[in-house]
Amino acid sequence: MEKMDGVTNVKESQSKARLAIFEIAHMISVPMSLTTVIKLKVPDAIWQNGLNIPLSASQILTRLCPHGGGDAENLQRILRLLVCYDIFAEHLSTCVEDPTVEPFKKANGEGAISYYMKRPETLDLTHKALAGITVPLMRDILDSYNGFHGIETLVDVGGSSGVTLQLIMQKYPNVRKGINFDLPDMWILLAWTDDECLKAMQNCYKALPMGGKLIVCDPVLPELTNENQRTKALLGGDIFIMTMYRTKGKHRTEEQFKELGISAGFSHFHAVYVDPYMPILEFHK
């Protein structure tokens, strides 16, 4: 029992350390969000006539931009991050989606992917950083998750250098055929719109045999906002995706993933929280 407790404590420490790293890595999202709401005069819009009445992001934009404009969903994402730091209080409401604006593209004249593709040294550093995250994460996942038993053919979509597939096949000799499928500009699913995610999942559904499954490892937002480290790390990462890559790319909740899976044709959805930041999501055909 002492040995098992020691292993459990090590894994808990590793998970906490990973969350702390993600929170610090995305900490820039907090001052950026605070600067944004101040420049937009969001507090003034909420405090009109001296009344601190709860308003939706759409209602706030109506006060700020009476003639239209702005993106209510993205404002909601910014405000939700600031709720974690006690700057605003959250009252759940439905957000209205407006047309996409890519902040990175607006600032640099092109999207982040094409921008970095022209800078090999930066792209190489990004690949090394992703590998630095992937290897320890996958080792922890493979220690706790046994969903690769019985699989003979495994396709890693968006597998980058193939290190994830290599680690899986080393542990599971039953995986006789491994296919690493990627493009230079792939970062799925968090950098994609709902429509793009749905199309990809539909294609996966068509390619799978009956009884096959789609396994996704992606950040999963909590339904409710709180002040714990996991929520801060996830919401900070969500703002990073919104500003650096695509405003409609986003971190999703478990329910949002489930709805995408059902829409793609999958009959069963199951979330396995082997990691607090990026759990395993199974979609069964």
TrEMBL record:
Matches recorded under SUPFAM superfamilies: S-adenosyl-L-methionine-dependent methyltransferases (SSF53335), Winged helix' DNA-binding domain (SSF46785)
One GO term of the biological process aspect: methylation
Source species, domain of life: Eukaryota
Pfam families, alphabetized: Methyltransf_2
Chain ranges of the O-methyltransferase C-terminal domain: 91-185, 187-267
Segments crossing the lipid bilayer: none
One Gene Ontology term of the molecular function aspect: S-adenosylmethionine-dependent methyltransferase activity
Alphabetized InterPro entries for the sequence: COMT-like (IPR016461), COMT_C (IPR001077), SAM-dependent_MTases_sf (IPR029063), WH-like_DNA-bd_sf (IPR036388), WH_DNA-bd_sf (IPR036390)
Keyword terms, alphabetized: Methyltransferase, S-adenosyl-L-methionine, Transferase
Protein name: O-methyltransferase C-terminal domain-containing protein
Organism expressing this protein natively: Lupinus luteus (European yellow lupine)
Lineage: Eukaryota, Viridiplantae, Streptophyta, Embryophyta, Tracheophyta
